[in-house]
Amino acid sequence: MSRLHSARGRFIDRHSSMLLIAPYGFLFSLFIIIPVGAAIVLSFTYFNTIEPPDFIGLSNYINLFTNDSVFMQYVLPNTLLYAIFVGIGGYILSFFMAWTLAQLTKIPRTILTVIFYSPSMTGGVMLSTIWSVIFSGDKRGLLNTLLLKMDIIDDPVQWLQSGSFLMPIMITVALWSSMGVGFLAILSGILNVNQEYYEAGYIDGIKNRFQEIIYITIPSIKPQMLFGAVMAVVNTFKDGGTGVLLSGSNPTPDYAGQLIANHIDDYGFIRYEMGYASAVSVVLLVFIYIMSRVVGGIFNSSDE
């Protein structure tokens, strides 16, 4: 009898668990698995959104890496450069700001956390209301006004239409708005480190804050650090709105700010070559997966 009740209890628990995760499973399949599967299938076709997809095998991928000069000369180098400065730089900046805020008392820490986090939620609005005004190419632009008054320049500079300045401006803006959920996770981890670890560390020979960070703080918050690193990778590679919003065009001027996400939008929603755009999106997905695995491997290897 007890075995019957035990088996019945396991049956109910199993089905209750499945019932609880069913809404998440449905939404995950609807918005993640099905679109990714559709993109993979369409990447092997020519599809102009009007005629039925025409299977062409690996032609899209071959053209991407052999015939698409814009992708190889501009998009791929731009994306890698952007990922290094914004991904790695933003991640380091997030940790530094989180650690700095953790040293403050509760009220100023809360206020500053909201201030640092808010640009990640209102990035598009801020781009159009603040940064576009600062880097406006006429005399009314704040940066041009300042430089003209200081006699550093004689004529207004077209900051957002210049191939020389667009990428540095994009990196600056992206770093400014990089304090997202990864930053909050790292801050939360630092605030929850057992203070006894620090006391024991100083007894064992730790002499300064730098050693405290290396030997206590970072090892104690590895899950939060890993989460922040993965989010930095994903957000960096999928970003494509910064350059387009700043310059007002896609492709960006001289392809100076053209990233993989912009390339996808260009072919998918401007040229309506959905098959080719799907191939580029699959390549982007592979990049994100590889980088996420590399990041995970770095943190896992440090545990050994």
Question: Would you give an account of this structure?
Answer:
The chain is mainly α. The protein has one domain (71-303): MetI-like (MetI-like fold, Orthogonal Bundle), CATH 1.10.3720. It is 75% helix and 1% strand. The protein contains 14 helices and two strands; from the N terminus they run αββααααααααααααα. It has helices at residues 2-42, 59-66, 69-102, 106-121, 123-134, 142-149, 166-176, 181-191, 195-204, 209-220, 222-238, 241-247, 260-270, 274-303, and strands at 45-46, 54-55. The protein has a two-stranded antiparallel sheet. Helix 3 (69-102) packs parallel to helix 8 (181-191), helix 5 packs across helix 12 (241-247) and helix 8 packs antiparallel against helix 11. The radius of gyration is 24 Å and the shape is globular. The two termini are 48 Å apart.
Would you spell out the secondary-structure blueprint of this structure?
Blueprint: H1 2-42, E1 45-46, E2 54-55, H2 59-66, H3 69-102, H4 106-121, H5 123-134, H6 142-149, H7 166-176, H8 181-191, H9 195-204, H10 209-220, H11 222-238, H12 241-247, H13 260-270, H14 274-303
Antiparallel strand pairs: 1-2
Helix pairs in contact: 1-14, 3-7, 3-8, 3-11, 5-12, 7-12, 8-11, 11-14, 13-14
